[in-house]
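Support reply, case 0932

Customer input (verbatim):
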Amino acid sequence: MIRVLLVDDQPLIRSGFRALLEVEDDIEVVAEAADGSECLALAREHLPDIALIDIQMPVVNGIEATRRIAADPTLAGVHVVILTNYGLDEYVFNALRAGAAGFLVKDIHPEDFLHSVRVAARGDALLAPSITRRLINRYVNQPLHTAVDTGLDELTSREREAVALVAQGLSNDQIAARMVISPLTAKTHINRAMTKLHARDRAQLVVLAYESGLATPRNS
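Our regenerated output:
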């Protein structure tokens, strides 16, 4: 059962998402919050698998709520998915840096929304290749994090290759085919890279790969 926390200051939006989720046998909405502060309290109480969080909210916004969830060891199993009205608004990349597993546009088709919730629950990043390219092309000139290069030095050549392919938005099966290895081996490379780089999930690997120069808009 996938446990979901809905966080949006608009009751109509929350009720719409709840209606979609609650008809699914494998998904349960455990709580709703109207702002980021309430979100944190409910996340600690219910320990959901997924927190669907709106970016723009009163009291504590979605980015700050995401940052606090990512920084709390007791919430390590909570995957944050940002809800936004625009696919590439100015906050999205900051949300990914803060620890979000991905983002969804609020006018997403219902079947795509349900699929995305399940993808996020597996720990996969919600970043299609086209969205990744557009995001990075927009933010590629932002200052790099100085700690990234040191972490990359710890990766093996195959781990670096796997991370670069993650940055292209490829699935484990696609990465395995590209590297001519089994999907299990591909997953192992990715998991080890996440551990070495202290990345919360695949979305964080995408950010780290581009910030460090391991992946560039030209090769994605």
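We compared this against your earlier run and they match. Two observations from our side: The first strand starts at residue 2 and ends at 7. The longest helix spans residues 183-197. Please reopen the case if you see a mismatch on your end.
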